[in-house]
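A protein record in our archive is deliberately plain, so that people and models can read it alike. The record that follows is passed on verbatim for readers who wish to inspect the format.
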Amino acid sequence: MTAVCILLQNFYDIDIRVRRKAEALAAAGCSVDVFALRGPNGPKNYTLEGVNVYTISLGKLRGSLVRYAFEYLAFLLWCLVRVTMRMPRRRYKVIDANTLPDFLVFAAAFAKPMGAKVVLDMHEITPEFYISKYHMSPDSLTVKLLQFQEKISFDFADHVITINEPILELLCSRGLDRAKTTVIMNSAEEGRFLSARSSTVDTASADEKFVMMYHGTLTQLYGLDIAVEAFALAHEKMPAAELWILGSGPEKNRIENLAQERGIGAKVKLVGQVPPKDIPAWLSRCKVGLLPIRRDVFLEFASPNKLPEFIIMGKPVIISRLKAIQSYFTPEALAFFEPNDPVDLSRQMLRVYADRDLQNRLAAKASIEYKPIRWDVMKQRYLAAMENLIGPDLSGRLTVVHNRG
């Protein structure tokens, strides 16, 4: 049986992008091992949906650059040892390293000469991530070093995956060979959302409330304060509207306090963390999806995982006008507003609230524009890229999976 190894410095269970890749490979007949972080009170080793998961209790404290460096290097060393020791027995055909960090790809340093092909899945663009997080100058020595480690990392890989075309263009401008790349977009697995959409009573239609909903991590980057400010400006003209915020994170108390200060505490509901399996049912209760992401050098390239979930559930979406998102969706599909601007966001809230036909048109057009990047298409791309690396050992089984997709 063809063996594939996936490296992930995150909790495997909640990293939906990596889980989909691993499960697609397992369904195609591969034996898949994942090396990842151990979740709170999680098991050391376990099997999930046919994927073997091995973990290390390292944590994700981060915060400072020093802490980031320690965690990254410790995880790299652990993966390097584990992969190298297992290589003579498992004979991995592919090592799939998922960023951050970029240099996690060097955990395959000894496996590659032993015959493994190396894939680097660049979930994030590292220099821009640190420019955004630590307000660094693009010309600083630290950023130059990050760009250097980025380049040697994708040069070492046999194949590179990026999450959208704008990021691909940026990386190619920094020396990435376009011929060895594949774009695998962040998309949602439609099955569980379509099932919920067809089997759940449309409570949003029957409910008098007009729910605008955000679901995800509550961080400054995702602009929930902007959403609250915009809602405060528009709520008097939207008497049936409420803003529901699902998730947890460091901004929770600030958002709650801001809603109280603006006099809309009764209309802004912080629901808290919702289990992933319950998300489709919650989305069925809203009228409009809201993604008020801030604009900066990093988020300009964002492809939010939550956007396709709203689209699959047939909900119109109000979203920041960011470069990567505009590369795939038109203003006829999404209600764009100027990022970081609560006044412009309030205008879009009022516009969508007042026009039921507009809501339906946006949802229908977004569904059409999403089809070329839906998970079934992305899965086929990923399996085709892996087939090209693995060779004839897996070609027959992957062809079957392509046809099913």
Observations:
- Residues 234 and 350 are 7 Å apart (CA to CA).
- The radius of gyration is 22 Å.
- Residues 190-372 form a domain with the Rossmann fold fold (CATH 3.40.50.2000).
- The chain has two domains: 3-187+374-404, 190-372.
